[in-house]
User: What shape does this take?
Amino acid sequence: MREAHLEAPRIPNVIIGHVGTTHENLRNGSPVVAIDGPVASGKSTVGRVAAEQLGLRFLDTGIMYRAVTWLALHQHENVDDAEAMERLAECCDISLDCERSGALLVVNHQSLTSDDLASADVDRSVSAVAANSAVRRALVAQQRSLAAAGGIVMAGRDIGSVVVPDADVKMYIDASPEVRARRRFKQQLESGISADYQQVLADTLRRDRLDSERADSPLIVPDGAIVINTERMNLSESVAAVVFAIRTATGAASACAAPGG
Ligand code: DC
Assistant: This one.
């Protein structure tokens, strides 16, 4: 396995890592890119824009856990009841179309909007659902089949560690809890939701703890991941860092470049 040492001199605060680059997908310009990171690290926004620039599909796997949670709440199931969640996962039919602009999600024949998936009720319960091993097994199987065709950027908590540990490029996007909470706080104010920064920070820390302390597939920095700290970066600097890392790691700047990208 060849190791690429990345240098990104014009991009501030990029922590350099190592990545293997021998996968077949690199040669046909259809890499599988895994992006993990904690809540509000920017992995989904940055991953989506980077995928667009590189002409790759994008999947935010968090919406799949949110969809199962929505279904459980819709069916008045107790999300802490492991057996009920297991039954739900077994008969839960999620179909999604993760073309470049994002994913259209249909669960048991009902189309879900981003408002359904981001509701406060789903927010409160999704960590419990994501900790259920039967739910994870069902969703990871779907995520692997979506990755099998290549040409995709997938964002989540366990993508590089569990879903596609042999991804062509693995990244971990990070920032301090305070900066991530400030981003979420600002987003909520911009969407007209009244918010309290201390409350948002407490919720960010709570979700970090749940994600990293759960027994099944906890959030970790995957082996071989490039760690990008977006603490002092704005969106376009973060996208530039991710696109740079993908192009460098795949050694295929032209192979996966979108026209004009
Ligand atoms: O990224 P998000 O906040 O939309 O994720 C929703 C929940 O799903 C959160 O509790 C983390 C969990 N999740 C996970 O466990 N594994 C993934 N690959 C993606 C999300």
